[in-house]
Design brief:
Radius of gyration: 18 Å
Oligomer: single chain
CATH topology: Nucleotidyltransferase, domain 5
Number of domains: 1
Structural class: alpha/beta
CATH class: Alpha Beta
Order of helices and strands: EEHHEHEHEEEHE
Strand order of the largest sheet: 7-4-1-2-3-8
CATH superfamily: Ribonuclease H-like superfamily/Ribonuclease H
CATH architecture: 2-Layer Sandwich
Largest sheet: 6 strands, mixed
Helix content: 25-40%
Length: 235
């Protein structure tokens, strides 16, 4: 393949909630969208940007639109722009997370990276199972995150741990097991932390993450009945 990846997946991710036992919502959420080409990604960005302008004109909001400060009807308008795009979410039941994980900022950051890795892997497997991606092909994964949403202080960076999971496989020393790699071809992973005020697709992930968080907070499962949506629950 001459060292060139034949497939690319673009992930845009944001979070909602606080990974803390005292959080008013018992679930911490990561959610977002994935696109299989730059063309689809740019088309989606254009459509979302147009709706943002409509909502700003109606609400007179200056600056970035945040789901937490937006009326329900406007959140719905923004959500519907991407209703049929490929989306994903992971909900962490905070009450089931070990206290020692929540005991320091560094361990919380490492756990957040682990959660992100799990949902990225699940989304790639979803594409493989649907024969959209061939595990034997090369794959380039682009991950864009809100720069405020995560930080890594663990043994591995997020980028390295995702690569290891997908391309090399993971040994679980506690249980003496080995998880096979997902991809057989060459894997390249890039992670970029972005200013969400400058990135419409991360803003769209904020709207989705808020919707998923509300579905758990208010016990409204209908909010998670989304076409082309992959939902993961942890731990």
């Amino acid at each position: 393949m001459n060292g060139v990846c034949q497939n690319s997946v673009y992930f845009f991710v944001d979070d909602s909630g606080v990974l803390n036992k005292n959080s008013p919502c018992k679930d911490f959420i990561y959610a977002g969208y994935s696109f299989l080409s730059k063309t689809k990604m740019e088309d989606a960005k254009r459509r979302y940007r147009n709706m943002v302008h409509i909502v700003k004109n109606a609400t007179h909001i200056d600056g970035e639109i945040k789901a937490s400060k937006l009326e329900k009807k406007y959140k719905n308008k923004l959500f519907k722009v991407f209703k049929y795009e490929q989306s994903f979410s992971v909900a962490v039941d905070i009450s089931k997370v070990y206290d020692h994980i929540l005991g320091s900022k560094n361990s919380i950051h490492r756990y957040k990276d682990y959660v992100l890795k799990r949902i990225i892997k699940s989304e790639i497997l979803n594409y493989i199972n649907k024969n959209i991606i061939d595990a034997k092909d090369d794959l380039k994964i682009h991950i864009y995150l809100d720069e405020q949403a995560t930080a890594t202080n663990g043994v591995y960076t997020l980028k390295e741990s995702i690569y290891e999971e997908l391309a090399e496989g993971i040994s679980n020393y506690d249980y003496g097991t080995f998880h096979d790699p997902v991809m057989e071809g060459k894997v390249i992973v890039s992670v970029e932390y972005c200013d969400s005020s400058m990135n419409y697709l991360i803003q769209s992930a904020d709207i989705l993450a808020n919707r998923i968080e509300n579905s758990y907070y208010f016990g409204d499962q209908s909010l998670r009945k989304i076409p082309n949506h992959l939902c993961l629950n942890m731990p």
